[in-house]
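Hello,

I think I submitted the DLL job twice by accident. Can you confirm which output corresponds to this input? Input:
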Amino acid sequence: MSNSVYWNKTIETMPRKKLQELQLKKLKAQVKHCYNNSPFYKRKLKEAKLTPDNIKTLVDLQKIPFTVKNDLRDNYPLGLLAVPPAEIVEIHASSGTTGNPIIGAYTKTDMDTWQELMARSIYTAGGRNDDVIHIAYGYGLFTGGLGFHYGAQKLGAAIIPASGGMTQRQIKLMKDLKATVLCCTPSFAVYLAETMAAEGVDPKRDLVLKLGLFGAEPWSERIRDRIQTTLGINAFDVYGLTELCGPGVSIECSEHHGLHVWEDHFIVETINSETGEVLSDGEEGELVFTPLSKTALPLLRYRTRDISVIQTDNCPCGRTHARMMRVSGRSDDMLIIRGVNVFPSQIEYVVMGFPELASQYHIIVDRPDALDTFLVKVELNEEASKNKQLDLKALAVKIQSKICSVTGLHPEIEIVKYGEIPRTEGKAKHVFDNRKGKM
Ligand code: DLL
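Support: Only one job matched these inputs. Its output is below.
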C-alpha cells in the first residue's frame, strides 16, 4: 500500500502556470476536434465567427458560446457525437425529470480517463487498495454505481457492488464483509444510519467503516455532521455529471474545504446565470465546464446550472487544482413563492437545526386559487416520535418562525412521525411544485 497522499503527485501538485499551459494545449486540440468532427460545433463556432486558430490563450475560451442542456436534449440521442459510432464502447444516461434523457457516450479513451479520475478521486479521499469498498450508488444507466466501480477496480480495492435497495441486506453485507468505505448518495447514507439504529446495529461497534464518498445531490454541512456522527466516519463530497463523465469531476481532500476540480481534464468557470458574465474567483455563480479530454461527446463551455464558488488559492493539502465550494443548489431549483425567492437549501438548513427532526422533508407548493400555498412537511426522528410529552404545536411554531427568519415567509408546518416520509434509493426528492399549469 502506498503511503503517498497523492495518486499522481506530478499532476496533482503541478504549479498552476504549468497546469494552465497544459490546459491551453489540450483546449486548442479540443476546439479543433469539435470543429473538425462535430457538425453541431462547426456550426456554432462558425456562427460566432471563430475557427480553432482564434484560440491562442485560455482567455480566448470566453469567445466561445455556451452549450446548454437543451442543446443535448434537442440533439438526442447522439447528435453531438464527434467519433464514428463504432468507437463507442459504453453508454450512460441521466434520468432527468422531463423530456429526453441526457446521454453520456464513451470511447475506450474516455473510459480510461474516467477510470483514472475515479481512482484518483477515491484515493484523494483516503481509499487504498486494501480497502473494501461498498458501492450503494445505483448500477446501470446512472453513472454513480459503475463510475465508482471502475475507479475502485483501478485502485485495486475489493468491491461490494451492492447498488441500491435491500437496505437491511446491505447493512449485513457491510458488517460481514468488513466494508471500510461507503459510496452512496448522502440521503441514502442517512437512511442506512437510521435503519442501523432501528435494527440495533451500532456502526461504531459492529462495522469497520472509516470513510464515505457522498454526492449526486446537494447536501449540507449539517447533513455531513449527522452522517459523520451516526456512522462514525469521515464524509467526503464528490461531484460530477453525466455530461462530463459522471462522478470524478471533483472531490474534497482531507481539508474538507472545497472540492478539487481535476483541472488537467476540465476547465472550470463561474458565470452570472442571468447575464452570462464570467465571474472572478470567490464570486458565487453557475459552474461552466469545458472538458479537455473527451473524445466521443466533447463539450465547450457547458452550463451545469449548479451554483458554487471557485477558489484557486493554495490548499494546505498541496494540490494546486482549483477548488469548487459545496454546490449550494441549482439555478433552476429556486422557487418563487408569493413573489419571494426560496431555495430548498434554506429549508434544509432550518430542518437540520432541530435535533427532534429526521433529515427527510418535503416542500409542497400549490396554487388552488390565486394565492400560492406553501407547506413544509417534516418528520420527527425515532426518539422524538416515541416522546408523548413533546408539544407538537409549539415545535411547529418554532419551525415556522425559523423558516420565516430565513425566507420571510410563514409556511404551514406538518409534523409527521418517523418513517412516514418515504425514503428514496437514488437521489432524494424534496420539492413538489404542484402549481404547473395553474400559473
Ligand atoms: O449525479 C454523477 C454523480 C454520481 C456524482 C455519484 C457524484 C456521485 P447526474 O445524474 O448527471 O450525475 O446528475 C448531475 O447532480 O449537475 C448536480 O446538480 C447534482 N450533483 C452531483 N454531485 C453533487 C454534489 C451524477 N456533490 C447533477 N453536490 C449535477 C451537489 C451534486 N449536487
